[in-house]
């Protein structure tokens, strides 16, 4: 079983450690064992994830996106 830390998850996903902890706790997947947090995923959580992953999704080709940030005047930048 691969081992990872919440810090590694945070760095890989750009989600704060606190948000990861809160989400895992809300899912009932975070346990405190021998002085450290341990992620314990039940079979039900894994099955639900696999079902949701199998559902059809809209795939977006990033190469087809054409976005340019708006150019704001100094006054507009100040007001925002």
Folded structure, characterized:
Keywords: Acetylation, Activator, Chromatin regulator, DNA damage, DNA repair, Transcription, Transcription regulation, Transferase. The protein has four helices and two strands. The protein is mainly alpha-helical. It has a domain of 54 residues: Winged helix-like DNA-binding domain superfamily/Winged helix DNA-binding domain (Arc Repressor Mutant, subunit A, Orthogonal Bundle), CATH 1.10.10. The protein has a two-stranded antiparallel ribbon with strand order 1-2. A hairpin with a 2-residue loop joins strand 1 and strand 2. The model has no long low-confidence stretch (mean pLDDT 85).
Q: How would you briefly describe this protein structure?
A:
The chain is mainly alpha-helical and 80 residues long.
Describe the secondary-structure layout.
Elements: H1 6-13, H2 17-26, E1 30-33, E2 36-39, H3 43-54, H4 74-79
Antiparallel strand pairs: 1-2
List keywords for this structure.
EC 2.3.1.48; 4 helices; mainly alpha; Histone acetyltransferase ESA1; DNA repair; extended; two-stranded antiparallel sheet; 80 residues; activator; Arc Repressor Mutant, subunit A; chromatin regulator
């Amino acid at each position: 079983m691969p081992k990872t830390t919440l810090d590694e998850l945070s760095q890989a996903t750009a989600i704060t450690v606190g948000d990861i902890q809160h989400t895992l706790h809300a899912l009932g997947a975070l346990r405190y064992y021998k002085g450290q947090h341990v992620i314990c995923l039940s079979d039900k959580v894994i099955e639900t994830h696999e079902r949701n992953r199998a559902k059809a999704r809209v795939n977006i080709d990033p190469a087809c996106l054409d976005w340019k940030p708006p150019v704001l005047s100094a006054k507009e930048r100040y007001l925002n």
